[in-house]
Amino acid sequence: MDRRVDYLVVGQGIAGTVLSYKLIQKGFSVKVIDDGHRTASSTKAAGIVNPITGRSYVKSWRIDDLIPEAVDTYASLEKDLGGKYYHEHTIVRVLGSIYEENKWSSRLLDDAYRDYIIEDYDTSVLDPYYKDVESCAIIKGGRVDLRSLLIDFRNSLIEQEALIEGTFKSKHLRIQPRTMYYDDLEVGKIVFAEGVQSIDNSYFPDLPFQPNKGQVLIVELPNYDIKDIVKHGIFICPIEGNKYWVGSGYEREFEDDQPTKEGLTKLKDQLSNILKSTDYKIVDHISGIRPSVKGRKPLLGRSNTHRSMYLFGGLGTKGSSLAPYWAEHLIDFMEGKHDIDPEVDFNRF
Ligand SMILES: Cc1cc2nc3c(=O)[nH]c(=O)nc-3n(C[C@H](O)[C@H](O)[C@H](O)COP(=O)(O)OP(=O)(O)OC[C@H]3O[C@@H](n4cnc5c(N)ncnc54)[C@H](O)[C@@H]3O)c2cc1C
After folding, report:
1. Given CB 3.0 to 4.6 Å as the disulfide criterion, which of 125, 168, 232, 295 pairs with 274?
2. 8-state DSSP, 43
3. What b/e sequence results for 104-115 when a residue is b if at least 16 CB atoms lie within 10 Å of its CB, and e otherwise?
4. Residue 79's Cα: distance from chain center in Å?
5. Cβ–ligand 1 contact at 149 (below 6 Å)
6. 48 C-alpha to center of ligand 1: Å?
């Protein structure tokens, strides 16, 4: 086994996956250390790429740049790994108030939104299944099957002998004037892509994380025939066969990352408030913690104390769309091609 690598990437969520994939493609030698997705939020996420978000129906930050890079990157991963990860999806948002209806009407007239709006959609297809649907916003979006992607990429790392299974521990790291060793592996640069675990990273102290927890049901809806993503308060998102991802709330206060009884009750209540039939079967109840950040923009950059250590995180609620573009940006920064964009520099606070 090669005992020197250009890059050691810590964490194999969507951030670490896309970053290490791009590094390998560019010809760098890479090893990835991951603890078996122990705290990964990527494996809990629906992976929705939603270009128009919030109650005001505004374009997501930098979405015109993010989507092309995401589509190219996931297509390239599909070619190399043989899976299908990026699915184009219509997102149907049930408008919940006059305010939302007005906002949406103004978007329909705005050229900047044209690429993300679908106009010829017959919303009566929802009638057999949903209560209280009067008007809807129909958005051109997508979904990344993060779970399959992470598993397939992990297997390819194993094949390339590029995965170290375990938890990165700083006591295993020796920092010398010109190089670093992780155990007996000589390492050029280290990139931390630990998701919410970066809160405890002593090389990047005091990061402004505002983590929030989301709980999710995986349900079978036997008599439901909508293949679009529907948001009617909560998302109902097709994943495979007649299985749907249903979620998810934003909990600021929580004890741990585990699903709770209260979370289950709330999701069941939300489903019975919107669905006409409660003929569904819960196959799983899962939860995860989003690595959200004050100001809701990613955290990238070089450690102020250790000049060969970098951070790639703070992807918040939008890892699927943010990871490809910002991984490319970080690599160019690490290779000296440009400065870090001040909007994502973790030193901006
Ligand atoms: C319920 C829910 C729904 C969501 N829905 C969406 C959605 O629809 N669309 C979307 O784009 N985003 C969504 N998100 C957000 C998305 O999950 C995150 O933006 C994204 O997954 C963050 O990826 P990451 O790689 O930074 O972190 P993570 O996925 O958390 O990955 C970090 C990895 O590093 C490992 N790790 C951490 N520390 C160490 C260490 N010291 N040593 C070794 N390994 C370590 C972890 O176990 C994990 O495998 C959702 C999140 C949740 C919780």
Report:
1. 232
2. T
3. beebeeeeebee
4. 21
5. no
6. 14
Residue ranges of domains in the chain = 4-45+147-208+294-348, 48-144, 212-290
pLDDT tens, residue by residue, 139-164: 999 999 999 999 999 999 999 999 99
Cβ of 145 less than 6 Å from ligand 1: no
Location of structure tokens 């609620």:
317
Q: Is 45 in the pocket of ligand 1 (CB under 6 A)?
A: yes
Which tens digits make up the pLDDT trace of 34-80? Answer: 999 999 999 999 999 999 999 999 999 999 999 999 999 999 999 99
Residue range 4-45+147-208+294-348 forms a domain whose CATH class is alpha beta
- Per the omega criterion (within 30 degrees of 0), is the bond before 124 cis? no
Q: Identify the residue whose C-alpha is closest to ligand 1 atom 10.
A: 318
* Structural domain 212-290, CATH architecture: 2-Layer Sandwich (3.30)
Among the atoms of ligand 1, which is closest to the Cα of residue 15?
25
